[in-house]
Amino acid sequence: MKETVIKTEKLTKKFGNFIAANAVSFEVKKGEIFGFLGANGAGKTTAMRMLCGLSTPTSGKAQIVGYDIYKQTNLIKKNIGYMSQKFSLYEDLTVVENIRFFAGIYGLSNQDIKDKSAHLIETLGMQNESKKRVGTLPPGWKQKISFSVALLHEPKIVFLDEPTGGVDPLVRRQFWDLIYAAADKGITIFISTHYMDEAEYCNRISIMVDGSIKALDTPVHLKHQFNAKNMDEVFYELARGAKRRE
Amino acid sequence: MKQFLSFVKKEFLHALRDRKTLLILFGLPIVQILIFGFALTNEVKNSKIIIVDQAQDMASQQLITKIEASRYFEIEKEIVNPKAIEAAFKEGKIKMAVIFPDNFNHDLLHQNKSAIQLICDASDPNIANTLSNYIAAIVGDYQTELNQNAALPYQIIPETRMLYNPQLKGVHNFVPGVMALVLMLVCVMMTAISIVREKEFGTMEVLLVSPFKPMLVIVSKAIPYLILSLVNVASILLLSVFVLELPINGSVLLLFAESTLFIITCLSIGILISIRVASQQIAMLISMMGMLLPTLLFSGFMFPIENMPWPLQILSNIVPAKWFYIIVKSVMIKGLGFQAIWKETLILSGMSAFLILVSLKNFKIRLA
User: Fold this and answer.
1) Edge-to-edge order in the sheet of strand A188-192
2) B231: Cα separation from own chain's centroid
3) Fold of A29-55+75-239
4) What is the pLDDT of residue B39?
5) Which residues of A touch chain B, with CB atoms under 8 Å apart?
6) Residue B45, Cβ neighbours under 10 Å: how many?
7) Which residue among A171, A234, B137, B234 has the highest number of C-beta atoms inside a 10 angstrom radius?
8) Does B26 have pLDDT greater than 80?
9) Phi and psi angles of residue A159, each rounded to the nearest 5 degrees, phi first
10) Which residue of A55, A77, A85 is in closest CB contact with B211?
């Protein structure tokens, strides 16, 4: 039995009368690729923000790598990486400057920063591009750098908020290779996505509808459970009943 | 601390890499110094003056009544001892002193000739010039009245002395104004934009997910602009000393200390704007319309506040640049010390403290 790295119990967030996330409970194990699905406005982002320590829950409990979500947010932040749907590198800085900056704000030592940035550039094969500004690079490359930067401080969990929005299928496929490589090293991947083909790549997925988790299992089991040919159908079946629209 | 330094370094890179930013940062002060070389003239009303009546005779009283009746002047007080003049000027309220010599009437009657002395605060040369011309006109008027029934013409000669700025250099009043304007622009707009940019590009979320404290994000954003602004202050001062040949009469250290205070006020405005708005355009618009315009209108460097209707005069008090303008004028041109500007300093400090408190409160709400 692998250790549990994310554990939530009835996690709820209300904005006034609006319940953005309603009693969300689930567990994620170490090294798992956990897909977090839901239509726009279903409460994915709210839930993810709570898990990252960006927003305080209204009620419920949650532990991230064993730390309490209310009291130990700073310890949580040290142990998680984050990459958002919006591109999250500085376009006017060079690749190396971006890497050094993010390593710097996570408090890595100078020697560490030097070693890691050199190693990273080598792994990505970007020796020739390291002094170029990020804004001049193609989107696929930016994404790879962005993901690698999120892993720089060796987090135990990486939260990916729709990381592949707006890129072509080939680049997405390459991006998933990086995700698998990270998961093989024991890093837990928590990913939200709109692409159902990507959902198939996950070990387990949860589908949120109107603020609550309506389904949670492996893709194979879910298809079986809903008697569907693919994840698309599963998603439709669940999302059809949604009352909230964006 | 190391994290903090990484952040500050990155902010410097942002600022120095963007050509537009650099242009605004360093091109603006130069352009403005050159453009505002042409000072503006304006009618001056209700200027506070002081009357030193050593004569206390009929002629002096008649002239004083005439001056009093004019809408251009407001007599702050009448004194007999000329020693109190200097103190009155240092308070900063008085624009001019009109001095009647001991035997004003006697000379006039027996020698047909008398003099009055005018001492003007020429740190604003336009106002000083206009005021002395007004007095000359009033005196000329009085002379004509006297001469109607006189066998020999009477003559009253006004002798004018321009205090602080004897050559009436126009540059004197616009340098402090440009300083206020440039700092306002650089600090408010640049900080606001640089923070909002992070929000827009989604990098703010990444920063907030990191262990880096949110408040530190804001502080480390402000620091490069504080330093760059001080560089700006230095360059404006150098320009005015070496290009415009305007000496700094007061303490340079005090000038820099007060500039730092004003920069902090502006930075807190920028931070507050950036916390409240979501896009760079809105941040820019608010900084331009909400900050730059009032600074131009109400700091007193383009349009004398004394001439405005009273609601606008009251409104001008909430414009930080007004107080900074008074401070710079006092220190740089009049060469006064801290005791002359403590009130303005206190007001600016109060404004900064208030703005920072409001920002802190808003920032917490946003993160909840």
Assistant:
1) A80-83, A157-161, A188-192, A33-38, A204-209, A212-217
2) 20
3) Rossmann fold (3.40.50)
4) 45
5) 52-56, 74, 77-78, 80, 82-93, 97, 100-107, 159
6) 14
7) A234
8) no
9) -95, 120
10) A77
Chain B positions touching A101 (Cβ under 8 A) are 6-7, 9-10
Where do runs of H (alpha helix) occur along A64-168? 73-79, 95-105, 110-124, 139-150
Residues linked to residue A77 through DSSP beta bridges, in sequence order? none
Chain A residue with minimal CA distance to B206? A82
Task: Give the percent of chain A with pLDDT over 70.
Answer: 98
Helices assigned H by DSSP within B18-49: 19-22, 28-35
Is the pLDDT higher at B341 or at A41? B341
What is the side-by-side strand order in the sheet with A59-64? A18-29, A4-15, A59-64, A67-68
Cβ(B7)–Cβ(B216) under 8 Å? yes
pLDDT in tens, B207-239: 888 888 877 888 888 888 899 889 889 988 888
Chain B's closest residue to A94, CA to CA, is: B13
Q: Which of A56, A103, A159 sits opposite B368 (nearest CB)?
A: A56
Please give the residue of chain A at the shortest CA–CA distance from B16: A92
Give the amino acid at A20.
Answer: A
Q: Do B202 and A84 touch (CB under 8 A)?
A: yes
